[in-house]
Amino acid sequence: MPTLVIVGAQWGDEGKGKVVDLFAAHADVVARFQGGNNAGHTLVVGNERTVVHLIPAGVLHRQTTCVIGNGVVIDPAVLCSEIDELQKRGYLQDPAQLRIDERAHLILPIHRQLDIAREERLGAHKIGTTGRGIGPCYEDKMARRGLRVVDLFDPEYFRERAARLLEERNVELTQVYGWPPVDLDEVCREYAVYAERLRPHATDTALYLAEQVAAGRRVLFEGAHGTMLDIDHGTYPFVTSSNIVTGAVGTGAGIPPRCVSRVLGISKAYTTRVGGGPFPTELDDETGQKLREVGDEFGATTGRPRRCGWFDAVVVRQAARLSGMSGLALTKLDVLSGLPKLKIAVAYDCQGTRVETVPAGARAFASARPIYEELEGWSEGLGQVRRFEDLPAAARRYVARIEELTSTPVTLISVGAEREETILLRDPFLI
Ligand code: IMP
Question: Which protein residues are within 6 Å of ligand 1, measured from CB?
């Protein structure tokens, strides 16, 4: 059962796209199981940069089938434009390469509008969402008034359900936020076009995945965001609206947990976060600025500058425990070159008490002060290094300390955005 789940160990943007793209070359299927176009992967092949938000990062490998599972929320406008863009570049020529689950929920224009209107209203207390309508769409899913991919193919039913949804949500949009209402006819017209575009891709992907797993094919589950943004296990309320931990594969792809054989966590060699919320190791100084510039830390989805800070071993250790990580991929180690000293948070000081887990309370976490351990830095560039033993001794010690603190073996190190700028220590399907 060679299935591999790839999951972010921090607050997202850990470099999952590059790692998924690398392993997709050895996978038969790559499936997404949660989130939506709030995620964004930048794939770099030669001089070509491709940013995908919904389509799994495996799409650049023609022999790999890409699946968008039932747990994903789909903005069909974004999905159709991604399909167009990829087809223009010669990818995705066969519709069977992309399978979209019929049970996945649809983001409607009103979801985007509610997301933006609500954030505006919250002002200083805003979550800092991506404004893509993700939260309101998941709300409607749970409220049992959502619309799903399968509904696109039954226009009468689609209209009836959309009318009911808009009846309720337009009240909020107009009366709470003072925005104009969304028009039912316009939505039906727009979504009828998407129905035709998406029809060749829509199917029961849980069944397809079960067949693939049973046949012993290599299936890679591509997580989006990071564990600290998980709706249950993250730094609530500054989280996204879906589950991100490995367990979400069960519900979001329809795969029983026993079918997950390996879990690879992805973490940067330092920490970043976009949006609001506590971030104990954040650096508001020159070092933070340097990490942002050298690491090119600007969001793939919104272009927002990312907040940067030291590696937080408490966060990654917790993520490793929650997702049962069998290995860790450490990305952007090269960005740390030239810093004379490096710090790792090994615990927090919470009102005078040493705490080794992420506190549940938002206020407790906001007041947690990192307890640091200091390590020697290195000055050499790492971009050309391909073997672990060729890393400077200080870099090897840094990696080894992260392994100890997170109780997880580092199985891959990334030293640049290109596919080949990678040190592979073990085959992730076999770790
Ligand atoms: P939403 O997912 O758009 O509702 O945003 C909720 C929070 O999750 C915000 O802080 C976003 O910045 C953050 N977020 C959502 N997706 C990502 C991601 O892929 N990378 C980093 N942060 C994300």
Answer: 11-13, 38-39, 127-130, 132, 134-135, 224-225, 229, 238, 240-241, 274-275
List of the chain residues with pLDDT < 70:
1, 428, 430-431
Instruction: Output the pLDDT for position 430.
Output: 65
Q: Give 389 Cα–ligand 1 centroid separation in angstroms.
A: 36
User: Ligand 1: which residue has its CA nearest to atom 9?
Assistant: 129
Cα→Cα distances 233→61, 361, 410, 422, Å? 33, 11, 23, 30
Q: Is the dihedral of CA 271, 400, 41, 68 positive or negative?
A: negative
Among the atoms of ligand 1, which is closest to the Cα of residue 40? 19
Closest residue by Cα to residue 299 from 37, 32, 24: 37
How many angstroms is it from 278 CA to the middle of ligand 1?
14
The β-bridge partners of 355 are: 348
Q: Which atom of ligand 1 is nearest to the CA of 129?
A: 5
CA of 60 to the centre of ligand 1 (A): 24
Closest by alpha carbon to 225, among 276, 269, 265?
A: 265
In this structure, which residue's CA is closest to atom 20 in ligand 1?
12
Nearest to 10 by CA among 322, 242, 285: 322
| Concatenated DSSP letters of 355-388 | E-S--SSHHHHHT-EEEEEEEE---S--TT--SG
CA of 84 to the centre of ligand 1 (A): 25
Q: Which of 129, 222, 243 to mutate to test the pocket of ligand 1 (most atoms within 8 A of CB)?
A: 129
Q: Which two tokens stand for residue 369?
A: 């002060």
- Distinct helix (H) and strand (E) counts, the chain: 12, 20
Using only C-alpha atoms, what is the Rg of the chain? 21
pLDDT digits (tens, 9 = 90+) for 368-402: 999 999 999 999 999 999 999 999 999 999 999 99
What's the pTM value of the predicted model, to 2 decimals?
Answer: 0.95
Sheet strands (E) in 16-97: 29-32, 41-45, 48-52, 65-68, 73-74
- Of the candidates 275, 280, 269, the one whose C-alpha atom is nearest the C-alpha of residue 414 is 269
Task: Find residue 65's DSSP bridge partners.
Answer: 29
Pick the atom of ligand 1 nearest to 229's CA. 8
